[in-house]
Automatic annotation (TrEMBL):
<keyword id="KW-0479">Metal-binding</keyword>
<dbReference type="GO" id="GO:0004452">
    <property type="term" value="F:isopentenyl-diphosphate delta-isomerase activity"/>
</dbReference>
<feature type="binding site">
    <location>
        <position position="70"/>
    </location>
    <ligand>
        <name>FMN</name>
    </ligand>
</feature>
<keyword id="KW-0963">Cytoplasm</keyword>
<protein>
    <recommendedName>
        <fullName>Isopentenyl-diphosphate delta-isomerase</fullName>
        <ecNumber>5.3.3.2</ecNumber>
    </recommendedName>
</protein>
<feature type="domain" description="FMN-dependent dehydrogenase">
    <location>
        <begin position="179"/>
        <end position="340"/>
    </location>
</feature>
<dbReference type="GO" id="GO:0016491">
    <property type="term" value="F:oxidoreductase activity"/>
</dbReference>
<dbReference type="GO" id="GO:0000287">
    <property type="term" value="F:magnesium ion binding"/>
</dbReference>
<comment type="similarity">
    <text>Belongs to the IPP isomerase type 2 family.</text>
</comment>
<comment type="subunit">
    <text>Homooctamer. Dimer of tetramers.</text>
</comment>
<dbReference type="GO" id="GO:0070402">
    <property type="term" value="F:NADPH binding"/>
</dbReference>
<feature type="binding site">
    <location>
        <position position="165"/>
    </location>
    <ligand>
        <name>Mg(2+)</name>
    </ligand>
</feature>
<feature type="binding site">
    <location>
        <begin position="71"/>
        <end position="73"/>
    </location>
    <ligand>
        <name>FMN</name>
    </ligand>
</feature>
<dbReference type="GO" id="GO:0005737">
    <property type="term" value="C:cytoplasm"/>
</dbReference>
<feature type="binding site">
    <location>
        <position position="101"/>
    </location>
    <ligand>
        <name>FMN</name>
    </ligand>
</feature>
<keyword id="KW-0285">Flavoprotein</keyword>
<feature type="binding site">
    <location>
        <position position="226"/>
    </location>
    <ligand>
        <name>FMN</name>
    </ligand>
</feature>
Amino acid sequence: MILPVNSTTQRRKADHIRICLDEDVNFRQTTNGLERYRFQHCCLPELDRSEIDLGSSFLGKYLGAPLLISSMTGGTDLAKTINYRLAEVAQQYKLAMGVGSQRVAVENPQLADTFAVRSLCPNILLFANLGAVQLNYDYGLDQCRRVVELLEADALILHLNPLQECIQPQGDTNFKGLLDKINILCYKLSVPVIAKEVGNGISATMAQRLINAGVSAIDVAGAGGTSWAKVEGERASDAVVQQLGKTFADWGIPTAECITSIRAIAPNIPLIASGGLRNGLEVAKAIALGADIAGLAMPFLKAANESADALDSLVQLLIAEITTVLFCTGNATLSQLKKSDCLQHN
């Protein structure tokens, strides 16, 4: 049985879904930076479009397309419906998937089934998720193991969200000494650890420090999509916090800049591009810039909230868009796209 939405964490989860679906929470001026790039068109691709292969692997697992259903939600009845629909479409198309922060399930084990999707997607690449800052608030290896086991996950995302925590009412803002704790966790946990921002980006300098600490992959989650400063400002009743959300609504490093700067200093780290990606053309640009796979959240959230059919249509469209980019640039595979020089800076 799902309990009423009465805990602070549960209410926050419900608020996040409602605000993201009903309010304008996009960055106001900052973009993901991908509009500054364009593909050079190939008028004679010498390809059969039907033979184009979008298959790839990430952290040792096969993907039918280079798509990650980014971490979003859990902990409420609506979140359960959304996660189950996402899991089913991920299994059908062999996509990767992350769930929202599982802290609420640690606090209230009766909510675990709102995250527990593995039975619906037995073969996909599936990511558990906790806030890294919780390692400074009585969380440790045991809680990390618990959320991985609950999900039967292939890896654990540790999300980094200092700006969100600053603006979130009763946010957790002690980030001191976290890198050493992440380092210990990386070497003691049985699954890979992925470092992920939540929409303000990871710089090359921080990426290098995280890699040195032992993380196995990085999700840049750059600026240009959903502004969690705006989301938390919308939730707040305090006028100061509301203004903080407005002031920092455009804070962060654009996604394209994150990809190129991190890839320049770490050519081999498994890299996820996310942050404001809205279609398959942007996914293809992110891959051409050096990402291995691309994560989307808002498009999947809106489609999953609407219906399973809407979600299926979205995935078909994304795949068709990526395939069209490969065809019209003369590349038969994602590997060829990454090695080509068909993406140009405007």
